[in-house]
Q: What sequence folds into this?
């Protein structure tokens, strides 16, 4: 739903509800929505964003968004998700609300029907247009990227405290350069997803203790 706004990837398609933008389950032709979007491209783990050097160069809406706490951002995301769900229900879709480990999400089953799947995508896009957000199409600054890096260091420490072995992070400058150049950039959750014997209940426990954003 919020492909252009969300900048921290989920990397949880095997465990969590799937995103409209990035992880629709084509094999079952169902769809799940989440206020956290994913992008499975091998080139980047986030949607492309315009990067500027300082916050002074950002539009006011972007400065306001990045000044919000993560909890405040999540509440806004959830409210937009509720609006989208309501709109889809009004269009006749059966929307099943789920809880994506503390984050509002939903699913729609199109029963393997390609035509229904395509129609559902069109309806979802229309619903987004009906409730435009002032926080779409964000411009991110280098200080904001630095904040992401610092937060991921705290997530790394949290995951390691849960017994997950995490690869060494890149330097802050490399992280910024990778983000700026739309390359895949470091996320400690990648190592969590590589744990072969992780049960769903243990995964839920870890993600609740160490939220990735």
A:
């Amino acid at each position: 739903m919020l492909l252009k706004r969300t900048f921290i990837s989920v990397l949880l398609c095997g465990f969590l509800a799937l995103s409209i933008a990035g992880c629709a389950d084509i094999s079952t032709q169902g769809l799940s929505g989440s206020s956290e979007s994913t992008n499975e491209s091998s080139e980047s783990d986030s949607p492309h964003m315009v990067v500027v050097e300082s916050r002074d160069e950002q539009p006011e809406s972007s400065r306001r968004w990045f000044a919000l706490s993560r909890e405040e951002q999540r509440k806004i995301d959830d409210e937009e998700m509720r609006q989208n769900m309501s709109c889809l229900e009004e269009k006749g879709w059966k929307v099943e609300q789920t809880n994506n480990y503390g984050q509002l999400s939903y699913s729609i089953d199109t029963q393997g029907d390609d035509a229904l799947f395509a129609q559902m995508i069109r309806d979802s896009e229309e619903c987004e247009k009906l409730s435009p957000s002032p926080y779409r199409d964000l411009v991110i600054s280098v200080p904001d990227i630095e904040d992401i890096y610092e937060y991921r260091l705290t997530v790394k420490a949290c995951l390691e405290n849960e017994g997950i072995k995490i690869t060494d992070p890149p330097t802050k400058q490399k992280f910024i350069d990778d983000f700026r150049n739309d390359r895949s950039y470091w996320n400690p959750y990648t190592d969590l997803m590589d744990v072969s014997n992780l049960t769903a209940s243990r995964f839920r426990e870890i993600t609740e203790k160490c939220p990735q954003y």
Q: What stands out?
A: The first helix runs from residue 60 to 67. Residues 1-47 have pLDDT under 50 and may be disordered. The first strand starts at residue 30 and ends at 34. The beta strands are 30-34, 50-52, 96-99, 104-109, 139-141.
